[in-house]
Structure formats: C-alpha cells, structure tokens
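Follow-up to my earlier ticket, as requested here are the two runs.
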Amino acid sequence: MSQQPSSTAPDASTTAQVAEHPSSAPSRAAELASLKVKLRAALRQFPDFPSPGILFEDILPIFADHSVHEALIRCLELHVLETHANEKPDVIVGLEARGFLIGPSLALRLGASFVPVRKQGKLPGPCETQAYDKEYGQDFFQMQSDSIKPGQKVIVVDDIIATGGSAYASGELIKKMGGNLLGFIFLLELEFLKGREKLPAPVYTLLSGQESQA
C-alpha cells in the first residue's frame, strides 16, 4: 500500500507500515510463485477437443477444489495489488462465459463492482455493442450502457487469451463508455496466436501457455 505524504510526524502504526513495505514485494512474489505451481498441477488437457488438432486446457478442476479455487483468486489479487497499487480498480469485467467464474470473486476481494460482457441479445435494456472476428465470421459482444461510468478504472479478466478478438471487443466497449482500461488478466495464454498484440492495455497471464500444436 502506498503512503501519502503528511505535514505531521508519522505515528507508530504508519512508521511500522513504512518499515514493512520493502519486504512486501519479495514475500508476495514468493507466495505468487508457490500458488502458480498449485494451479498448474490442477489443470487437465484433452487432445482433439472440441475438434482434431486442438489441445483443450480444462480449468474446471480448479473450481472443484476449494483450496485451489482460493489459490486462483489470491494469485489474481496479488497481481493487482503489485501492479495497480496506486490505481485500485473500480470495476472488474468478466467475459462470457468463463470470465464469470473468476470475475465476481476477484471483484469482492478488491472491493470493486463486477460487470459481465455477454453475447448479443443476452442482456436487457440499452446496450453498447462491439463486433469481433471469429474463425468463421463475426460475432458481437454487449455490455449494458450504464454499467461503467466515465473515468472508472477497469480490469478485464478471462480464462484464456487465444487470438485476442473477444478481449479486444471488451476493451472497445469499455472505451465507448468512457472507462479507463487498466489492463487484461488471463489464467492462460496461447502465445503462438499472438493475441496480446491486438490489445490496447497491458496483458498479464498467470500461467505459461502452450506451444504451437502444428
């Protein structure tokens, strides 16, 4: 936690906080590294699903074990605390559908609101709409028009970044509503697809992804 300058002498508690700060980064880094090992061990891979040549990363075992689920949310919390210490997010945005498994819990930890991004036609009321490219044509994401206020600081979360199209669409929706996009957080990344190159804000991935399956 950052310390604000004061015109008066610091009290004992403030002095203690300042003294502890230098050790916080190494301890958080060690904790994060240990938790990542636990997360990686929980993942399962299924070859040729949902189609031949695809190696499917199954994250659902993480949520079947409460201690691993806790490790996931703590990893995300640690990253936000380290990276955005002076810019606490106001909103966590989760992408349909696995972002809904992660986003609400992280939002609760950070004292932020949670906002879903959904496929077109799933949300009631006025919505902002953004197209994005898929392997076979276009699809459309939507967010309710009043879900993000101008100037609010926003982080987007999802399970995997592949081509980056859906994440890019979410970023465009946030910008349309005047939000300040702090970054994107993913559990896994398929690096060979270079999806992060499309995204307009910093990208963080908890675990290393797959090599090309070609």
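Run two:
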Amino acid sequence: MGSDPQYIKHPDLVLAQHVFNLSNPACPQTVQQASLKKVQSVISENKMAPFYRHLAHPVEGILNHTGEGVPQHQGGSAKTLITSKLLASRKSPQKIDFPWDEALYQSLVEDNRKELETFQKEEDEAEEAAGETEVLAARGKRAEFWAKVGDKDKAIESHEALLEKTTFLGTKIDLVMAMIRIGLFFGDSLFVKKSIERAETLVESGGDWDRRNRLKAYKGLHLLTIRSYSLAAPLLLDSLSTFTSYELCSYSALVIYSVLAGSLSLKRVDFKAKVVDAPEIRAILGSGEDRLAALTGEVSSGPSAADEDMKDASTASSTPGAATTAVNLATFATGSGIQAEAETPVDFTPLADLVNSLYNGNYRTFFVALAAVEDNFLTQDRYLHEHRAWFVREMRLRAYQQLLQSYRVVGLTSMANDFGVTVDFLDRDLAKFIASNRIACTIDRVNGIIETNRPDDKNKQYADVVKHGDALITKLQKYGQAVRLRGSERS
C-alpha cells in the first residue's frame, strides 16, 4: 500500500481556466464576469503577489494591453516576467476590467515576505532541534507556497531542491507530479514532457498502483494538449473507471477529453467497444435506459456488444438541454464521491449526438453535432482551444472516409445531401484531402460522381519490396567499392 499523495493542492488548474476565459472572445459575457471575480478573489485569498503582477501590471501584465510592445526587460535588472501561455491567443485582450492596484500589490508582497520568514524560522528550528523529516516538511511548505502564489520559476526551483533531498520514492513522484501541474498551469509543454518522463522513470522503479494510475491521466492530458490524440485516447479511456486525480481536472472534463480523443483516433471496432458501449461513458452520454443499465452494471464494453443496443441519435437527445452532472462510477463503492458531486453540471447532449451519429452513419446529424461540440467544448477549454480547427477538420475527414469506404462510386449530390452541405462545399473540402493523399478517390464534376480508389495490398507490397530491394542493392554496391578500395591500398 502506498502513502497518500502529497503536494496536490497547488497550483489550482481551475484558476488557469478562469484566466483563459477572460481572454477568450468566444466565452459568454456572464462566464467572463464570473471568472474575473473568481480570479480576483483567489489572488486576494492566496496572497498571489507574483501572479497578480503577471496578470495586471501596467507594463508587464498579460491582461493589460496598454503595455503591449513594451520591452519585457528594461535596464540591467534581472528578469521579472513569468513566461506563460495562459491566454486564448497571443494578441493582448482589448477590454478586460482588471485594474492594477499598487497598494494591493505591496500588501500582498508584504504578506508573502512574512509567510516566507515563518517558513525559514520553522526550518531553522527543525535543523537545530528536530530531524531530517521535519526539515523536509518545512521546505515542502516553502515549495507549496511558491506554487500557491503563482511564481513559476521559484516554484520549480524549490520543488527541484526538495526533490534532491527527499529519499522516499512516493514523495519524489508526488513532487514531480506537482511540477507537471505547474507546467500545465503555465502552458509549458516542453517542461511537462520532460517532467512526465522523469515521473515515468520513478514509477517504473517501484511506484505504487495509485501513483501509476494518476500518472496515466497526467500523461493522457499532456498528449491531448500536443495533439497526440491516438496516444492520449487509450490512457484517458483507461482512467475513466479508476480516476482519482481531481487536482488535474474534473471527472466531467475527463469524460469530454476521453470521448473526443476516442472518437477521432480509434478504429470503428475499438470505437464501438471503448466509447459507444463503455459503461462509464454510457452512464453519462446514454439515454435514460442506457444510463440506468450502465449504473447497475447490466451493460459491459467489448467488441461483441450487440449493434442493436446502439440508440439512434434522436433517442440519445430525447431530452435536449438537460444538464447532466458527471458521476465517477468508481466512487460508489468507496464513498469518495464528494468531488464528483461538487462539479458544475454539464450538458453532454452535443457530445452524445456526435458519438451516436458517427457510429450510426447519420452524417447530417453528425455535422450539426460537430458544430455544437466546437461551440460548447472546443472553444471553451484551454487545452482544446488551440487545436479546435484541426479537430473539426480531422473529424470531417473521418466521416468522409467512413462513408466512401463502403462504395465504389458515390453521387456527389447524394453525398452532399447526406452531410447537409452544398455540392460546392463538399467538392472543395474533399479536394483538400485528396490533394494531401488523405482520401483515395477522384471527383468527376462533369458526371457528378466520386470514384473511390481502393489501394491494392498486393501491388503495394510488391512496390515496397522493389523499393527496399533497390536501396539494399545500392548500399551493398557502396560497401563493396569501399572494401575493394581498402584492399588495394593494403596491397
């Protein structure tokens, strides 16, 4: 049995989402106002002087567009800016009521100074009268303090220093996971990647099951942020039934990430087994009967699940607009469902329509659901926002491929009607994928048809053998010439 996870309170990734909302033009005005109040209250409550300066400073603040174009480092002073990717775009927001209060900032700085003095006093007393454990505990408070107040560089530095002094493997893993969250908070993908690799090394050296499971969700979310959906989908979907990393994201968010990654990257058979028929997902996205069956354990995921169990898209959305709060099925037996109950209700109807219409081939409904998913989820989430256009394009490609693989010839008008788009739009959209060799077909606008070109596996294998054979012969010839040359030199 492993010890309870440590260093999981800070940084608060929900705060990063609120900052993102302030700069997101697609975010509703009411949500932006609520996020603004939340950011201001958290800064005051946690005495976040460095983070307040990073957001609102007249020159250096990322939310203050009046300082746009001002050099980040002036004179010979040391760097003071925190590097981050908290905003929805690189352009500074134009209208955000986040004023700079010098008096408030100075009071926060003074509070931070007093708190650091307290930590130093505790550490000094522990070094004189206590053991190494108490000293590390005092240093741990300092590391958590820098993560709480939003100073990226000092938080990482203090966690690294604590990591060098710590001998317990579980504590080391928790420290590296805390650094992963610091990187996620500030949008530093490269640092997150390196930290995940360190955590994997530590876990493989003897980490307990709980930390292995938590790291799976961490890695899946990171892969999602760098557009590696095919690698992220298995990790996120596996985390659904054993999710405990509420410091990383809510269970509702995990469901959204898992469904989107699985819908885009999984083959049809795996999509059926791991998304359409998965009891954890059916408990949330399914109709009333499906949800009840999943909660009571009457359904199970697997490739052999019957197709007739699949509900039509119209059935899945029989109660449009009904907000459903995500529930972690794994918490029912353990009694630890407090976190799930505290989550904000989410309307999963667009996501359910997307899954059902894609699997059932209701492409007109699929396009409508895809637009709704973009508006409700992709544009509103800080991890998905950057890749929203790519995701929508790849999902359209998946739908085109799914329809065309069943036919030799398809009428252009008929296919346009199936998707609910114009012939000109379909022609332009397909042409892009055909030109990039993403779809094996040709468009005949004169006759108004699309002819699919099914790749011949035998011919492809033969061509590959010839290609690799030619390369091998070339290398052998070069090697032979080199050997003969060296032999003549020796004689």
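The only thing I checked on run two: The first helix runs from residue 13 to 23. Let me know what else you need.
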